[in-house]
Amino acid sequence: MKVSMSVNGKQVSGEAEPRTLLVEFLRYELGLTGTHVGCDTSQCGACVVHVNGSSVKSCTMLAVQAEGAQVTTIEGMAQGDELHPLQAAFREHHGLQCGFCTPGMIMSAADLLKTNPSPSEHEVREWLEGNICRCTGYHNIVKAILAAADTMRGAARAAE
Amino acid sequence: MVEKGIGARVLRKEDQRFITGRGRYTDDINQHGQAHAVFLRSPHAHARIRGIDTSAAEAMPGVLAVLTGEDVKADGLGNLVCGWLVKSKDGSPMHMGPHPLLAQEKARYVGDRVAVIVAETLEQAHDAAEAVVVDYEELGPVVALERAHDAGSLVHDEIASNLAYDWELGDKAAVDAAFGRAAHVTRIDLVNNRLVPNAIEPRAAIGHYDPGMDHYTLHVTSQNPHVHRLVMSAFVGVAPEHKLRVVAPDVGGGFGSKIFIYGEECVVLWASKKVRGRPVKWTADRSEAFLSDAHGRDHISHAELALDQDGSFLAMRVNTKANLGAYMSTFSSCIPTYLYGTLLAGQYKTPAIYCDVQAYYTNTAPVDAYRGAGRPEASFLIETLVDQAAGELGMDPAELRRKNFVPKTAFPYQTPVALTYDTGDYEATLDEALRLVDWKGFAARKAESQRRGRLRGIGLSCYIEACGLAPSQVVGSLGAGVGLWESAKVRFSHTGKVQALTGTHSHGQGHETTFAQLVSEKLGIPYEDVEVIHGDTEKTPVGMGTYGSRSLAVGGEALAKACDKLVEKGKKIAAHLLEASEADIEFKDGNFTVAGTDRSKSMGEVVFTAYVPHNYPAGLEPGMEESAFFDPPNFTYPAGTYVCELEIDPATGTTEILRFVAVDDFGNVINPMIVEGQVHGGLAQGIGQALLEGAVYDESGQLLTGSYMDYTMPRADDVPSFEVVTAAGTASHANSLGVKGCGEAGAIGAPAAVINAITNAIGRRVEMPATPEKVWRALQNTQTPQAAE
């Protein structure tokens, strides 16, 4: 069956079976392979994307459920060559090693900072409960998110 | 001076693609005409396969092939092998049971590969897998390690018992004599819990046979593509080595689990030929990863430490039972032996040590190297034993350790268990860790916790590891089937840009950055002008890959040697251009200068001359490209002190780590940012082992912890921010860079620090993982039921 949605600001449509997960549609139908699959029980968070502005594990959602939705993936976070502050902070603070969990971490953190622009370290750690990283011990991921929050607050103040 | 050379905190080259979603992992690759493979796995731990009916599955829509162990046999493919021959006490070789690509006659663990289904789509392959009918005759499973010796059932009918080998190391008579004159003996029984490596990218492979070229290409999640190529051609025989290209693209973590040559990647390559050259892709789901990735650890040990009346160590005696699982995985035999027994001296000058290890087959997933591999088991054993001794003698655990350290004046130090430590300063790392954590102020902090109803504990761990695997002659004499050198090629282009090719593989370690820093420094050229290439057997020189914290200490040194050769050649060219004697040319900061003058040629000018040799030394080959192999003279010996401070809620048994201080001696450091990141990750895995993780099989051999809902991975709110110090190391003598390796330290040193802190808090030791239930039960002075272990 045909499914249509907006992905990273572009209207797209493609074929999906009723059992096709959103993450499978993104990866295999649209070729957006930045969204990863690290488990089969919706625990690892490597597949987090934004659907209508909220973070969603794209393995918990069928492609057909995203019909007509606004979807943002890691590929849609940078504005041209300008990285999203979270992307920049992950690089600046060595918040990634193998890179596999990174897209999900960034997408999840972006949702956190939207609802809580000044999280404490504790709040960041609690929020990341649904994202597993095996490489970094989370130390630099947490540091990167706190730094990005700082940058984004600064940018928001400057814009006021 | 180059700006981003050795010692600089340079941001990583590889990050741009990962943070923008443009990494290229194996499952991201899709090839024209690609078919999909699904493996049918045994639901039984131990069963005879009386027959497999594939006819219904073959008739399903989209199915291209259904292949079984009989097909593997008919095509004459060989078995998977274990590449390290360990001998028993009596000199007899270890008993290696056959490890077929697809099960033949028997399935030996839940998850054992029984058949492969290849279909047009993944969904079709899954559907067809359900239509394969396997006639199993269930057999009694061998599950519990402590009962493997008399389980009443044989994992491998070809072998007389489930014992694969009974190995020993050390002078037993000397140890027994020392125990005879000991003033005090400390005894401990402990379990080193079985772990699942859990790289977040599941294993995957795409096999492609090109009939036109008679050539094979395998994309695979591998830490060592050349080793994959070697084993698949020399032992499995699925493709000749010169016609097999193995590509390990971006790999999402390994931690050991992607060293090994598994049946799946061999099968997809073979299956591609069976389906007339269609590429065949397989990606594990997480459930398959839990069942079929090689697990780690899984020891049961009894250890004894003999001390004199002053607390000096006289001797140590260790017996360990190690679980190999159902088959001997690629390097499994050396983990509980040469990477374990040899480390039992720790940081101490214990004069006599004896260790024996019985390794058993069980009907569980194969067990092999997992981050640290043998060394965490050794370190945990020593450091809990020493802590217990301190408790029994009423000594400060730091001071008991200090008293028994190999002093810094004693290097090189020959241990009684075969290793020669080249450098170290164990008091320095201990002192720095104690200072950072404010060891002396602990009593006041404990009292403060007590006022809040919490039990506070502090624990030390002074670990050592042997890294930079390793001298080929040494490992060869101990049974290794391969050499453990490393290789590199450094290639200038006309324009002075450099490609640095390495036989190691990066799957999170940041080689593209660290190696570029190294080459930049050695050649005096900008970091940005160096591109590091790895992970493709048709691009890079033959290498042995990445494991055992060896990439920099062995592979980095090979790069350094290749750079040295380029500089030597450059001197000849510069001498010619400057009309000077080669002996008078000095190379510094990217310039070849006639000593004592201002006459010089830049590296760029020299390189251009080498490629446009119109005015060139007679007899010298054109070009600026050099290769080097490096076989180290010794292992490297990273060491350090870790301190964990934690609080336990006596009402729930919940442990909260308040501080974790890690002071490591990694020798010289190329990129401190990357090194600290490696420590952070290792610490989280070590804390995971201590508090959370444990693979549990039930009595019938079913894996109870088969998903992230059952197997507790460390999450962000389980670990603290770490305090990591890696400065002021003692340079290794095993390589010119003075580096030691840092990838495994955290996982090696952390478990004992955590467990010792818990023991300190509650007054008794609990086995790992020290879950809230176990801690709570220990506090109630009751035993944890066996079933919950």
From TrEMBL, chain A:
A molecular function annotated in GO for this UniProt entry is: oxidoreductase activity
Taking every annotated instance into account, which residue ranges of this chain make up the domain 2Fe-2S ferredoxin-type? 1-77
Specify one Pfam family: Fer2_2
Keywords, A to Z, come to: 2Fe-2S, Iron, Iron-sulfur, Metal-binding, Oxidoreductase
Q: Give the InterPro entries listed for this entry.
A: 2Fe-2S-bd (IPR002888), 2Fe-2S-bd_dom_sf (IPR036884), 2Fe-2S_ferredoxin-like_sf (IPR036010), 2Fe-2S_ferredoxin-type (IPR001041), Beta-grasp_dom_sf (IPR012675), Diverse_Oxidoreductases (IPR051452)
KW ATP-binding (keyword) present: no
* Domain of life according to the entry: Bacteria
Q: Which PANTHER family match?
A: OXIDOREDUCTASE WITH IRON-SULFUR SUBUNIT
Q: Which named protein is this?
A: (2Fe-2S)-binding protein
**Organism lineage:** Bacteria, Pseudomonadati, Pseudomonadota, Alphaproteobacteria, Geminicoccales
Automatic annotation (TrEMBL), chain B:
| Aldehyde oxidase/xanthine dehydrogenase a/b hammerhead domain location | 20-140
Query: SMART domains of this UniProt entry?
Result: Ald_Xan_dh_C
Coiled-coil features, chain-numbered ranges: none
Key words of the record: Molybdenum, Oxidoreductase
Recorded GO MF terms = iron ion binding; oxidoreductase activity
User: What Gene3D superfamilies has UniProt attached to this entry?
Assistant: Aldehyde oxidase/xanthine dehydrogenase, a/b hammerhead, Aldehyde oxidase/xanthine dehydrogenase, molybdopterin binding domain
**InterPro entries in UniProt:** Ald_Oxase/Xan_DH_a/b (IPR000674), Ald_Oxase/Xan_DH_a/b_sf (IPR036856), Ald_Oxase/xanthine_DH-like (IPR016208), AldOxase/xan_DH_MoCoBD1 (IPR008274), AldOxase/xan_DH_MoCoBD2 (IPR046867), AldOxase/xan_DH_Mopterin-bd_sf (IPR037165)
What PANTHER family would the database entry show? ALDEHYDE OXIDASE 1-RELATED (PTHR11908:SF132), XANTHINE DEHYDROGENASE (PTHR11908)
What name does the UniProt record give this protein?
Xanthine dehydrogenase family protein molybdopterin-binding subunit
The source organism is Marinimicrococcus flavescens
